[in-house]
Amino acid sequence: MTIQVLSPVTLDDVDLIVDVLLDQAHHLSGADASAQLARVAATAAKLSAYRVSLVSTIESSQVWRESDPNATAASFLRHEHVVDQREAKADLRAAHSFTRFPELERACRDGVLSREKMDLIVSIGLRTGPREAVFGEFVALFVDLAQRLTLSQLRRAMDMWADQVDPVTLAGDDHDAHQRRELHIHHLGDGIKLDAFFGKEQGMRVMAALNGALDQQYRSRQPTTAGETAATHTSGATAADTVTASTGAQRADAFINAIINPVLASGLLPICGGTPATVCVTIPFDRLQTPGQPADSTDVATRMSQNTMRHHSATIRATNGPGDALISPHTVLQVSCDATIQRVLITPAGKPLDIGRRTRVIPEHIRTALAIRDAAASSHTATGPSAGPKATTSNIGATADPPASTT
Question: Where are the domains of the chain?
Answer without folding.
Answer: 30-171, 186-266, 279-394
